[in-house]
């Protein structure tokens, strides 16, 4: 019987079919962060439960940790330091590998797991973070969970999961110059809505996907959760294998993963096809990632009034004429070395517009070091950007650092919900290239 890539991984991990569309699934990797990790580990300890295999569990300080230079355990979030210190103590007690605040391998979960070869093709990987789907770019079954599920998985090595339906999203042809993986996923969201993938795992396929490097594939899979999907996944290939070779936690030699693909005659529950040659640089106008248009387009005349009121926009308004206050490059979507290189190429030798606050937050300490070795940090700082330490900070508002009230932010992040980056903050999501160009222009602009 022919199978999809997802079916092959699912079947190889089913311990028992529980009926009703659910199964008990074996879990290969578990990733924790300081916002929820301590709670799960503390709950396990209080119940007298131990980790079934500490070697398969990893933790990192990324969500609450400060990104300002010279950071320590202190944060601007009230009570934030306790999250960090308690997670550190719990990880030591449990024997878990922890990438601490100033560890050389510290960074955002979905950046460092691939960087270190923790995620591998064919594995199941979970983390209490909805953007765990990022790691499906490696042909892994990776998805976000809650703290109680993390506790169950750490104690048993298993998790009860309802099997999602399958959807294939194929991008035919090749992208135009200046168009990115971020624009690919934003185009999908704009055309089919933020709920278009509900109940499905999305396999991204087609010529345009195969032409992407691994970092771009991660960007594509990262926003599968914005499509309401269970996760996203891409069949591993030579590009994947070459990326993983020699990584810290990757096996040597690498196993043979060449059978991890959807069979030619495999059937999906749903199919979407997009002509990649028609995709343009994109930017969101509203308060949902699905409320997105091309940078050279105007706000829809039938746009949702509530979203317009929050964003301070009018129907028919050209989005590229919209002034910005802040430009932010960072997050698990677009803070990898290739993202920083492309943005730096745009700002090199130029200055950000007067009155614009601009920041770059690398996705990991390793990315930061590599960028500095290439001089990218100097390009950004010479242009007027702040150069930060790695972490999730300012991607979402957790009660700590924020932008000035009422700011309009052009951001390489993945969500533009009301208050996502702070109370009253208006966020427009776009590629790092659009963010860089907008920082220079002082308004939303195409690269």
Automatic annotation (TrEMBL):
SUPFAM superfamilies: Aconitase iron-sulfur domain. Its EC number is 4.2.1.33. Transmembrane segments: none annotated. One of its GO terms (molecular function) is 3-isopropylmalate dehydratase activity. It holds the Pfam family Aconitase. Pathway: Amino-acid biosynthesis; L-leucine biosynthesis; L-leucine from 3-methyl-2-oxobutanoate: step 2/4. It comes from the Bacteria. One of its GO terms (biological process) is L-leucine biosynthetic process. It catalyses: (2R,3S)-3-isopropylmalate = (2S)-2-isopropylmalate. Residues 7-442 form the Aconitase/3-isopropylmalate dehydratase large subunit alpha/beta/alpha domain. Its cofactor is [4Fe-4S] cluster. Gene3D superfamilies: Aconitase, domain 3. It is an enzyme of class 4 (lyase). InterPro entries: Acnase/IPM_dHydase_lsu_aba_1/3, Acoase/IPM_deHydtase_lsu_aba, Aconitase_4Fe-4S_BS, Aconitase_4Fe-4S_dom, IPM_dehydratase_rel_enz. Keywords: 4Fe-4S, Amino-acid biosynthesis, Branched-chain amino acid biosynthesis, Iron, Iron-sulfur, Leucine biosynthesis, Lyase, Metal-binding. The keyword Acyltransferase does not apply. Catalyzes the isomerization between 2-isopropylmalate and 3-isopropylmalate, via the formation of 2-isopropylmaleate. Heterodimer of LeuC and LeuD. This is 3-isopropylmalate dehydratase. The lineage of its organism: Bacteria, Pseudomonadati, Pseudomonadota, Alphaproteobacteria, Sphingomonadales.
């Amino acid at each position: 019987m022919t199978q999809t890539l997802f079916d092959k991984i699912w079947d190889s991990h089913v311990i028992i079919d529980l009926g009703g569309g659910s199964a008990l699934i074996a879990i290969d990797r578990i990733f924790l962060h300081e916002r929820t990790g301590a709670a799960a580990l503390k709950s396990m300890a209080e119940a007298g439960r131990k980790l079934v295999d500490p070697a398969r569990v990893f933790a990192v300080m990324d969500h609450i940790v400060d990104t300002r230079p010279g950071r320590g355990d202190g944060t601007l979030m009230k009570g934030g330091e306790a999250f960090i210190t308690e997670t550190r103590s719990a990880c030591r007690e449990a024997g878990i590998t922890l990438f601490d605040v100033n560890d050389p391998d510290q960074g955002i979960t979905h950046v460092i797991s691939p960087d270190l070869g923790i995620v591998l093709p064919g594995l199941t990987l979970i983390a209490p973070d909805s953007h765990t789907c990022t790691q499906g770019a490696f042909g892994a079954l990776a998805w976000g969970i809650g703290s109680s599920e993390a506790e169950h998985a750490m104690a048993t090595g298993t998790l009860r999961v309802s099997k999602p339906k399958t959807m294939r999203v194929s991008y035919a042809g090749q992208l135009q110059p200046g168009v990115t993986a971020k624009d690919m996923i934003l185009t999908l969201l704009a055309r089919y809505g933020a709920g278009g993938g509900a109940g499905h795992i999305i396999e991204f396929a087609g010529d345009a996907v195969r032409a992407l490097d691994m970092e771009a594939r991660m960007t594509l899979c990262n926003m599968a959760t914005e499509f309401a999907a269970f996760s996203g996944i891409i069949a591993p290939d030579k590009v994947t294998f070459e990326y993983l070779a020699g990584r810290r936690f990757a096996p040597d030699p690498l196993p043979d993963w060449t059978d991890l693909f959807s069979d030619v005659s495999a059937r999906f529950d749903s199919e979407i096809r997009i002509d990649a040659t028609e995709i343009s640089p994109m930017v969101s106008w509203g308060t949902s990632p699905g409320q997105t248009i091309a940078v050279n387009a105007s706000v829809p005349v039938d746009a949702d009034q509530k979203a317009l009121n929050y964003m301070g926009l009018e129907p028919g308004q050209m989005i590229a004429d919209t002034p910005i206050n802040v430009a932010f490059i960072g997050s698990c979507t677009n803070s990898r070395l290739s993202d920083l290189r492309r943005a730096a190429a745009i700002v090199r030798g130029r200055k950000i517009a007067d009155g614009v606050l601009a920041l770059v937050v690398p996705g990991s300490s390793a990315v930061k070091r590599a960028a500095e070795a290439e001089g990218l940090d100097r390009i950004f700082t010479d242009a007027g950007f702040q150069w930060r330490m790695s972490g999730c900070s300012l991607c979402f508002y957790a009660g700590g650092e924020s932008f000035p009230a009422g700011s309009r932010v052009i951001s390489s992040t993945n969500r533009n919900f009301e208050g996502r980056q702070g109370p009253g903050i208006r966020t427009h999501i776009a590629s790092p290239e659009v963010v860089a160009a907008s920082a220079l222009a002082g308004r939303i602009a195409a690269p």
